[in-house]
Amino acid sequence: MKKRDFLVLDLDDTLVATTPALCELQTKRTGVQHDIASCTSHGRLWGLERHELVELMDLHLASGATRNPPFIPNVIDCLHFLSRHFRLAVITARNEEYCFETRRQLRAAGCDFHRVHHATNRHGTIPKSQICLDYGYEMIIDDHLTTANECAASGIRAFLFGTYPWNTQGELHSNVQRVLTWPEICQLLIPAPRD
Ligand SMILES: [Mg+2]
To answer: What is the pLDDT of residue 56?
Structure first.
């Protein structure tokens, strides 16, 4: 039997709707409306300093998001389907300090993830494209435009997930394919036979 290829997945805003949950939380904390439209860049939400973002993420994960994650629509059914065809790996830009919470969040999906990588640790951040090259991964799904572009430029098949304020501005590498929903991803990767 052919060894199944790896399919690499991003976590935040690709598998789970993290930024909308952070918006809701920040609105509750400050009394000021925060919405996804104002999140135009990753890692610089609402001008917060890094330690403030960490504090917000800590509160989010402590609020039940690790046991009951806000999964993107259809993602669980699609992951179960795709796991029959691919070995699933996750590369998250989250700091590895969140590895316990991250694994618990992934377990809530109820399917096997063969590998989970944290691209950020106390030494810095490794580009996801580099991790893909190091491990021989050939396909990635991510909502981050720069990540998708870098992976495509490295010869990795890259899918840019969703239409978010942070991924609709800027040029796409010619080999990046934008995908809007998880059923669309399934159909692209494993086309249904036609009559
Ligand atoms: Mg993401």
So the answer is: 92
